[in-house]
Write a sequence for this structure.
């Protein structure tokens, strides 16, 4: 195969999954009626600059050295409305998110990606900036950003059994969304929310579970295995584990709800067997409430 043909083939292969994901997200977003949205104001926007004292987590390149030279304090120059209108997404891509129970509905990961991209559609078309937490995809406006997000959500890098929230690179006083099954260690979740709260960032935690994970419909001899196969447990009487499992799941949900409450976030649990529209509407309204 010659070089142009090979390049085209690779490009088509890369782009193939993007239209279906984006189309599904746009279709879902279309079911939510948008009222007046966004924070644009005449005479402000990107032209308004604000100085604030530099703090932990600010990069040296963000410091305005001319302004800082006028005092003993380092100052960061930021766009107030850029921070206010920015929403940062973290969508868990760990292997646990591949679970799809009995196969009658989508996997947790597929539902998470569609919901995150759908809320991005609503926000971007409402005039806001959306990006990924961390430093890989800064928040931007525009249809091109939706394609960038769809591409990022389709990445196939090797991942661990359970995900860890990414709280780096968050703009002060912006908003954020964490979407995960939150079945791994909750200590990193607490650390990420605390870090976000320290920067004035508020948002929404959306826990996505499969109906089987919620109901634990197992009985008799059962082998429980993580999606990677690294974790495995066999029991002859699965029904005897049900009560303990449900108690621990309830405790986990309660802890997530409490973490959200004390940091100014909102928490909701969504099952893949339920309406994606209801979850999107909750997520969109949750972001509106933390403005």
């Amino acid at each position: 195969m010659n070089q142009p043909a090979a390049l085209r083939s690779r490009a088509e292969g890369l782009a193939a999954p993007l239209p279906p994901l984006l189309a599904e997200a746009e279709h879902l977003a279309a079911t939510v009626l948008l009222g007046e949205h966004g924070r644009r104001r005449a005479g402000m926007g990107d032209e308004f600059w604000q100085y604030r004292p530099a703090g932990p987590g600010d990069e040296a390149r963000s410091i305005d050295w001319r302004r800082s030279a006028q005092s003993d304090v380092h100052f960061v120059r930021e766009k107030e409305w850029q921070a206010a209108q920015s929403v940062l997404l973290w969508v868990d891509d760990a292997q646990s998110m591949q679970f799809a129970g009995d196969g009658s509905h989508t996997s947790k990961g597929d539902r998470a990606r569609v919901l995150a991209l759908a809320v991005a559609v609503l926000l971007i078309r409402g005039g806001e900036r959306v990006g990924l937490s961390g430093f890989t995809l800064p928040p931007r406006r525009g249809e091109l950003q939706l394609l960038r997000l769809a591409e990022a959500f389709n990445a196939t890098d090797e991942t661990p059994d359970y995900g860890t929230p990414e709280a780096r690179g968050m703009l002060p006083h912006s908003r954020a969304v964490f979407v995960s099954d939150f079945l791994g260690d909750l200590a990193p979740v607490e650390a990420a929310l605390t870090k976000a709260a320290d920067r004035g960032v508020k948002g929404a935690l959306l826990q996505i579970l499969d109906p089987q994970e919620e109901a634990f419909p197992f009985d008799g001899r059962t082998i429980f295995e993580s999606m990677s196969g690294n974790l495995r447990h066999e029991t002859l009487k699965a029904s005897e584990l049900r009560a303990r499992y449900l108690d621990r799941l309830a405790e986990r949900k309660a802890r997530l709800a409490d973490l959200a409450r004390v940091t100014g976030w909102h928490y909701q649990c969504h099952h893949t067997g339920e309406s994606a529209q209801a979850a999107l509407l909750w997520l969109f309204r949750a972001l509106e409430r933390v403005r």
User: Anything to note?
Assistant: The CA atoms of residues 30 and 122 lie 8 Å apart. Strands lie at 49-53, 75-79, 86-91, 129-132, 175-180, 202-209, 222-225, 232-235, 266-271. The radius of gyration is 21 Å. The chain has ten helices and nine strands.
